[in-house]
């Protein structure tokens, strides 16, 4: 992989602290993701976006195929977690105040970024961000974690993060959820219970992971130091500034706002269609 950070010639627009109207609804980050992909592609502008949520389960579309989905969703309500279906691939992940979601957006030119190189870029950023702690962050599938994938990030064999991608209209998003601190065992127990109840040992043509909580951990536990979400964001941003990339606070331009509204409406329709009860209520 080429060192894209040192080859970057444009500043990145940074979106972190946004107005509450763009952060309070569970669908907002996903509508923003589509808007930022479009903005990156049309304006040839790389973008960076950090976000966190309250207690929320982010389902993949495949999760809605569970034969006993209604029963399975009650697991989340019992833990007081809301739930919704995202607009990108993969399976269920947990988001709460101890999980940092981070996305980088690139315009795609004639030389299309390969899927693997997209993942490698995110892996490189995370490895650089925490290199001073003396641990190596590996990228390979942790098959018995929740939402397993080829580029799961792990330390000492325990998963700390998962990466996904989304491409639209000449832009690409590389997205990661990073378990920074909190009760990772509880998060994994919850997803394991979701699949146990949702399947009830019934065979399906879809594969769902046999989630084992012991194969997952938090960044804080893996590094052996206390870590906050803010510290984690600072470490990631430092990777860019150290490489000479300027980070500029982004503005929600009219084009972003319009694309956000369109993306939000699509999220509403998707969740109304795929979920049997209110997608943004833990008691739905």
Task: List the main descriptive attributes of the protein structure presented here.
single chain; 284 residues; alpha/beta; BirA Bifunctional Protein, domain 2; 8-stranded mixed beta sheet; 3-stranded mixed beta sheet; 8 helices; 36% helix; globular; disordered C terminus
Largest sheet: 8 strands, mixed
Ends: how far apart? 45 Å
How many helix segments? 8
User: Shape, please?
Assistant: globular
Structural class: alpha/beta
Helical percentage: 25-40%
Helix-strand string? HEHEEHEEEHEEEEHHHEH
CATH homologous superfamily classification: Bira Bifunctional Protein, Domain 2
What's the overall average pLDDT, rounded? 92
The CATH class assignment is Alpha Beta
Uncertain segments: 278-284
Protein name: Octanoyl-[GcvH]:protein N-octanoyltransferase
EC number: 2.3.1.204
GO molecular function, one term: ligase activity
Catalytic activity: N(6)-octanoyl-L-lysyl-[glycine-cleavage complex H protein] + L-lysyl-[lipoyl-carrier protein] = N(6)-octanoyl-L-lysyl-[lipoyl-carrier protein] + L-lysyl-[glycine-cleavage complex H protein]
Q: Could you explain the architecture of this structure?
A:
With 284 residues, the chain is α/β, with parallel strands linked by helices. The chain has one domain (4-274): Bira Bifunctional Protein, Domain 2 (BirA Bifunctional Protein, domain 2). 36% of the residues lie in helices and 20% in strands. It has eight helices and eleven strands. It has helices spanning 4-7, 28-43, 69-78, 115-129, 184-199, 219-223, 229-242, 254-274; strands spanning 12-15, 47-51, 56-59, 82-85, 93-95, 99-107, 138-139, 153-155, 158-168, 171-179, 247-249. It has an eight-stranded mixed beta sheet with strand order 7-8-9-10-6-2-1-11. Strand 1 (12-15), helix 2 and strand 2 form a beta-alpha-beta unit. Helix 2 (28-43) packs across helix 8 (254-274) and helix 4 (115-129) crosses helix 7 (229-242). The protein is globular and about 55 Å long.
